[in-house]
Design goal:
The structure holds three protein chains of three kinds. Chain A is mainly α. Chain A contains twelve helices and no strands. In chain A, helix 1 packs across helix 12, helix 3 crosses helix 7 and helix 7 runs antiparallel to helix 10. The model of chain A has no long low-confidence stretch (mean pLDDT about 85). Chain B has two domains: about 160 residues, D-Maltodextrin-Binding Protein, domain 2; about 230 residues, 3-Layer(aba) Sandwich (D-Maltodextrin-Binding Protein, domain 2), CATH 3.40.190. In chain B, strands 1, 2, 3, 4, 5, 6, 7 and 8 form an eight-stranded mixed beta sheet that branches. Chain B is globular, with a radius of gyration of 24 Å. About 0% of the residues of chain B have low confidence. The chains are: A mainly alpha, B alpha/beta, C alpha+beta. Chains A and C meet through helix 1, helix 3, helix 4, helix 5 and helix 6 of A and helix 1, helix 2, helix 5, helix 6 and helix 7 of C. Chain C: Belongs to the binding-protein-dependent transport system permease family. Chain C: It is a multi-pass membrane protein.
Chain lengths: ~325, ~425, ~350
């Protein structure tokens, strides 16, 4: 930190002079330029380039060597006789990925919200060692996705811990990641395992903001607990819950690292999600097509922007409600 | 005046130190076994004798070679030398070292057979040499066969006979599966060819999937469905991801494993004393008993700033004593014609299973079909392999029928060919 | 003692009786703890097993090493086995070699006598022990310290720069009204959720053009202008009352002083959250460094970890051990700053 403090000391008179010359407008520029320059070079420019890639064809990697093909990549991606049947599509793998992602998002978000809600409700009780429990549930949030994927692949493999338990209980070992159902369930479960602590904390904060006297009043009226939950807890938690829902949704659409390390997209393509499709088509060495990958990523990016805007609107509403 | 002197002497000093500054040569290297350590020692000796060259060995994951190196090469950058398996398709980026090599005739004489694997069609450039030759082939767990009382199929036995024998071992010993093949298009190509497959069309472009390919592939799918092939390797990944079953074989999970010569050192280390094993070459199909030749090549990169230094490093690494020591210590089959002809390589291993296994692979390399020898020098080979793996594992997972897969493989390949035009 | 008991059993309180929800809560918490910590402990235990033991099924819960004995007439120690002899008697014998389905054994007490035993009748004699070579080898034979140094450099530099640039931008976006402010916010928010993997190819070519390939700065710079950070800090700064700033202006404080001496200290909780997350993100970054860095002396830990996976074989014993090592700083950060993280996310993360 020390160099920063010293630099700030030196900067102070210089910037004061600058302010006298240019006024507030000049200072706004000073504050914004470092961040926005980096942001422009490393986020905006690549995004624009990505858009350009999606209008080009061929196998070359450098943009200037790629021929312009207009909307062809998009047409190829969206070309389907029946969008619910991947096999009728020109790019069957892409639509398999879309279907898998949709199923994943629905099941993972449902599981995530349920599990973190229950955990938050329990942690909101006057239970011993609350800080410790909170820490335990939060711990996996800090692990790298690669580590998370590796740990669970290690546990779920044929010779893994889970099969040890199954065998001890008298069952036959199952090759979990080889079974369409179990592999998908593992992807859902592991990503929930890794991130539930984060959502639990958000919900817990919301629960703790609910005034105690409301509950005390309910208790005095001998209101049944289920009614308290539906009538007091849930409505007052509404904004937090909505934000958790949308955040979880956005993260679920983007699922990649953990699932990729865990299942590699298999069995077959049962756990291949959109990001993996983009990554494989863009980078996998044998069947590379950067234009198609770029087009797919633009489609996915559009979806994410919509979801983000919903999240923004919801958190605005949450803020307004809190201020009231 | 004094200042001038100081300045001048500083300049002279700078010039002197610039002269003594060794030329850096970067080698991008991946390892499967101990070859990283061996090459590092060999290079240390080179540096000691050549203080004007600083060789920097970068040990990277194979993924870096597969996914990053192509991007670097496309943008005209990269290391000076790289160890690569996808040699033909990237041949435009390799350096023709002929003007810089001490004795190009030595290279032609000893590595001439495989120079076509790593240069563009029609060129007679010398771009590098094979650090190892590989040959695909089967391994068998002799101890499991003996315990099951099942006789080993004879030398001319077919795939069907081998899988049947392995099935008997599996049932007698209560094993989870009878055999496994690595998840790789390259690995199933030898068997495909043995059933009469041909990948290369008359115009040099990919031919449609034929009956020969389907003959073996449909068997493979059937064996997977019957629970004979270990599903872990093929079914449990999507795309072109590579998966090996070496650990399952080393673990005694399967009595029969189809992989290749590069596994010998790895198996020897992992199996140790646990059971006896042997290499059996490739089982037969209808037209032959072919494996697939292949290997990793060390190539010079065109974008290097120091081609002379690169050529000196390559001359050293390709020299007979260095290739000999490298092969003996890594248990890799050498590509050096002189060494092969001498036939006196003393592989350094105390494992009694190793020498006969390597011997069997050398023999197997004489049993390959002509089609197998043509593939490593064919530009579209990896595209074909990639499409095969992707689609066949979907069939095994029950997502596609064989006929659908056949159509899609043709389409995937056609897409790639069209994109490259 | 009774105090402890009431502390542990304190609960919702229905006249001191245990309500079924109390039982359910405790079951949930204990089950959850096993599920949350179990995998990490399993990883820890596995990381101390040697390659042969890692390949075993069923796996043992704890790491073991084979016991060996010095036997007269043999240069190297021989592995010990528990052998069931034909009579049903069990003895501890040392194995000389295995031949097919039989093993040639010797009694360490009586080295002259050789016994042939079917291998199905012997079981290795092992004791709990640690295969520490999994940890020491990477440190001795691979450039693990270099990776560690690079990771620390990337993490620290990127975090400091993130805090500085993001907070400056957030200050401008929260405390000034100017034309285009909403547009800037919209762009930032719009890119909030674009995953890296989506712009990988073009980002690579941009970094290549500005000459940052194969340099740690190529890893650091693209990560510091995080939209998340700007967004989070701006939302927090909005809650700082404008009156404070007006008062400072009255006292002739320059705008920079207002930012540096008033707003920044007041934003400490949000900065702490961003700092913690930035450290964790940068420490865990994998895909991007993997693509930018090819020179081994520049590898970060996560990339180094990946280099244990060759084309044909994955060296699990090293991967597991090094995974544990890379987890240590994250766990430490967590233990030391737990309070900040949990209250910070709850407080600042959700506005």
């Amino acid at each position: 930190m020390l160099p920063f403090v010293l630099a700030a000391r030196v900067l102070e008179p210089v910037l004061a002079l600058w302010q006298r010359r240019t006024g507030h407008a000049g200072m706004i520029a000073v504050f914004l330029i470092p961040n926005m320059t980096i942001f422009g070079i490393f986020v905006i420019v690549p995004l624009v380039l990505n858009l350009l890639y999606s209008f080009t064809g061929g196998a070359e990697i450098l943009l200037e060597q790629r021929p312009w093909v207009g909307m062809q990549q998009y047409e190829r991606l969206l070309d389907c006789q029946n969008h619910l049947q991947p096999m009728t599509c020109r790019e069957d793998q892409f639509w398999r990925a879309v279907h898998n992602t949709a199923r994943f998002v629905l099941s993972q978000v449902a599981l995530m919200v349920t599990v973190s809600m229950i955990t938050a409700l329990i942690l909101n009780r006057r239970i011993a060692g609350r800080g410790l429990w909170r820490a335990v549930f939060f711990f996996p949030v800090l692990l790298s996705p690669v580590v998370v994927g590796l740990i669970w692949r290690w546990i779920l493999q044929r010779e893994g811990l889970l099969n040890l338990i199954v065998v001890r209980l008298g069952g036959d070992p199952v090759i979990w990641l080889n079974d369409r159902f179990w592999a998908f369930a593992a992807a859902v479960g592991v990503s929930t395992w890794a991130h539930m602590g984060f959502y639990t904390l958000i919900l817990l904060a919301g629960l703790q903001a609910i005034p105690r006297d409301l509950y005390e009043a309910a208790e005095m009226d001998a209101t049944p607990p289920s009614r308290v939950f539906w009538r007091i807890t849930l409505p007052l938690l509404g904004p937090n819950l909505a934000v958790v829902l949308v955040l979880a949704l956005i993260r679920a659409v983007q699922i990649f690292d953990e699932a990729y390390v865990l299942t590699g997209g298999g069995p077959g393509t049962a756990t291949m999600f959109m990001t993996q499709y983009i990554y494989e088509v863009g980078f996998a060495s044998f069947l590379r097509n950067p234009g198609l990958a770029a087009a797919a990523s633009i489609l996915m990016g559009g979806l994410l922007v919509v979801l983000t805007l919903i999240q923004l609107a919801l958190s605005r509403r949450a803020e307004r409600m809190r201020q009231r | 005046m004094k200042r001038l002197w100081l300045g001048l002497s500083a300049l002279v000093l700078a010039a002197a130190s610039a002269q003594a500054e060794p030329v850096p040569v970067r080698i991008l290297w991946y390892s499967d076994g101990n070859e990283g350590e061996v090459i590092s020692e060999l290079l240390d000796r080179f540096e000691a004798a050549n203080p004007d060259i600083d060789v920097i060995l970068e040990n990277v994951a194979f993924q870096v070679i597969q996914e990053q190196l192509p991007v670097q090469l496309a943008s005209g950058t990269g290391p000076d030398i790289a160890r690569v398996t996808n040699l033909k398709a990237q041949a435009e980026h390799w350096l023709d070292m002929r003007p810089y090599l001490a004795d190009p005739a030595y290279w032609e004489a000893n590595f001439g057979d495989r120079l076509d694997w790593m240069r563009e069609d029609g060129s007679d450039a010398i771009t590098g040499f094979m650090t190892q030759l590989t040959m695909t082939g089967g391994f068998v767990n002799l101890t499991l066969f003996e315990q099951a009382g099942v006789a080993l199929p004879g030398p001319e036995a077919t795939w069907d006979e081998w899988i049947e024998a392995s099935r008997q071992v599996m049932e007698s010993q209560g094993l989870p599966a009878a055999f496994a093949i690595d998840r790789s298009g390259h690995r199933i190509t030898g068997p495909n060819l043995s059933y009469g497959a041909n990948y290369i069309g008359p115009d040099g472009l990919p031919a449609p999937v034929d009956e020969g390919t389907m003959a073996f592939v449909s068997r493979l799918v059937e064996w997977t469905g019957q629970g004979l092939m270990l599903p872990d390797t093929w079914v449990s990944a999507a795309g072109t991801t590579y998966r090996a079953a070496a650990d399952d074989f080393a673990n005694g999970t399967i009595p029969f494993y189809y992989s290749g010569s590069w596994q010998v050192a790895n198996l020897s280390a992992k199996i140790g004393d646990a059971f006896d094993w042997a290499a059996i070459g490739s089982p037969c199909g209808t037209v032959g008993c072919s494996g697939m030749p292949g290997g990793a090549g060390l190539v010079a990169i065109r974008y290097t700033q120091h081609p002379e230094a690169v050529a000196r490093v390559m001359d050293y690494l390709a020299s007979e004593p260095v290739v000999r020591e490298f092969s003996e210590r890594t248990l890799f089959l050498p590509a050096h014609a002189g060494i092969v002809a001498a036939g006196d390589l003393a592989f350094r291993s105390e494992d009694p299973n190793v020498p006969p296994a390597l011997e069997r692979f050398v023999q197997a390399s004489r049993e390959t079909l002509p089609a197998a020898n043509a593939l490593p020098a064919w530009q579209w080979a990896n595209t074909y392999y990639g499409a095969l793996v992707t689609r066949i594992s979907q069939v095994m997972a029950g997502e596609l029928s064989l006929d659908q897969a056949r159509e899609l493989i043709d389409r995937d390949i056609a897409d790639q060919v069209a994109a490259a035009r | 003692m009774t105090g402890l008991k009431t502390f542990i059993t304190r609960r919702r309180g229905h006249g001191g009786r245990w309500h079924w929800t109390d039982v359910a809560s405790w079951i949930w918490l204990i089950g959850g703890t096993i599920l949350m910590l179990g995998p990490a402990l399993w990883l820890l235990s596995s990381s101390f097993k040697d390659p042969a033991q890692l390949a075993e099924f069923p796996p043992t819960l704890l790491p073991y090493v084979q016991r060996v004995a010095e036997v007269e007439g043999f240069d190297t120690p021989l592995p010990l086995y528990t052998v069931t002899l034909p009579g049903g008697e069990t003895r501890i014998l040392a194995q000389i070699r295995r031949l097919g389905a039989n093993a040639q054994m010797v009694d360490p007490a009586d080295p002259a006598l050789r016994i042939s035993v079917p291998i199905s009748q012997r079981a290795p004699l092992r004791e709990i022990g640690l295969a520490t070579a999994n940890y020491t080898d990477p440190f001795l034979h691979f450039d693990f310290f270099t990776y560690l140094r690079n990771s620390v450099f990337v993490t620290v530099t990127a975090t400091l720069l993130t805090l500085l640039t993001n907070s400056m931008a957030a200050f401008a976006l929260s405390k000034y009204r100017f034309r285009g402010r909403d547009a800037v916010m919209l762009v930032i928010v719009g890119t909030l959720m674009v995953p890296l993997s989506v712009i990988l190819v073009p980002l690579y070519s941009v970094v290549s053009r500005v000459g940052l390939l194969d340099s740690l700065w190529g890893v650091i710079l693209p990560t510091i202008a995080t939209p998340t950070g700007v967004f989070l800090l701006r939302q927090y700064m909005l809650t700082i009352p404008d009156e404070l700033i007006e008062a400072a202006r009255m006292d002739h404080a320059s705008e920079w002083q207002i930012y540096w001496r008033i707003v920044l200290p007041l934003s400490a909780p949000a900065l702490a959250v961003l700092a913690i997350f930035s450290v964790v993100w940068r420490w865990n970054d994998f895909l991007w460094p993997l693509i930018v860095l090819t020179r081994r002396e520049l590898y970060t830990l996560q990339v180094g970890l990946n280099s244990y996976a060759g084309e044909l074989n994955v060296q699990w014993h090293y991967i597991l051990a090094m995974t544990v090592v890379t987890m240590i700083p994250v766990v430490l950060v967590f233990i030391l700053l737990q309070r900040f993280i949990t209250t910070g996310i709850a407080g600042a993360g959700l506005k």
